[in-house]
Protein: NH(3)-dependent NAD(+) synthetase
Organism: Thomasclavelia cocleata
Amino acid sequence: MYKFDAKKVKDEIVSFIKDWFDKNGKDCNAVVGISGGVDSSVAAALCVEALGKERVRGLLMPCGEQEDISYSYFLCGQLGISFDVMNIFNAVTAINNQFPPSVEVSKQTIINLPARIRMATLYAYSQSVNGRVVNTCNLSEDWIGYSTRYGDSVGDFSPLSKLTKTEVKLIGKELGLSNILIDKVPTDGLCGKTDEENFGFSYEILDKYIRTEEIDDLDIKNTIDKMHKKNLFKFQPMPCFEYIAN
C-alpha cells in the first residue's frame, strides 16, 4: 500500500530549496505568482520555511476583476511576506486587439494568453527584485497536460512538480496553512470552470491512478491515458536538429 510521509517530504523539499539557492542565487529572493490556490500557497510557504519570509516575494496578477483574490491577500498575510499587485488586463486586451481581422482568435488563444502574460510579468518583476521564479505546478496537472506551455509550466525551480495534488495538500497541512487555502476548490482562473469539471474526473481518482495504477472506471482510465500521451511533449526538451560538423 502506498504511504506518503508529509513531514519527511516537506523537510526534504525545504532542504532542496536551500541547496538550490545556495548554488543558484545565494542572495536572491524567491518570487511566487500568488493565485490563492493550494499550489502557490504551499510553494510560498515552503520557500518561507527554507529562506525566511524576508526573502520571499509574492506577485498577484489579476486579469481585471478576480473574484477570489481575497485568498491571495489572505495567504500573504498568513505568511507575512511582502507582495505587489500587477493587473495584466490591459496587456492581454492590447494583444487581443492587435489580431488582424483575417485571423479568427481561437478559444485556446483566449484561455492561454493570460497565463503566458502572467509568466512574462513574473519574470520581469523577478529580474527587478533580485529574484528567482518559483514554478508551482504539481504532478497531477502535469500528468494530463493541464498547464499552459510557456505559461504556468515554467520557472527557475520546481518544488512540487513530482507531487500529486493530494500530496501537495498534505504538505500544506504539515506547514500549518489554513484549511481555507488547502480546501479551496481548484480552478484554473481562465475558463470559469473548476479543474475537475474540465477533467471529467476527480483529483482523488487521478492521484490514486498515478501512484498505484489502480482505477475502477475503465473509461476514465482511457481518458487519463490519452491525455497523458497527448501532452507529454509539453514536458520534454525542445526537439533540435543535431548538426555534426565535419
Observations:
- The longest strand covers residues 29-33.
- The beta strands are 29-33, 56-60, 82-85, 131-133.
- The first helix runs from residue 6 to 24.
- The mean pLDDT is 95.
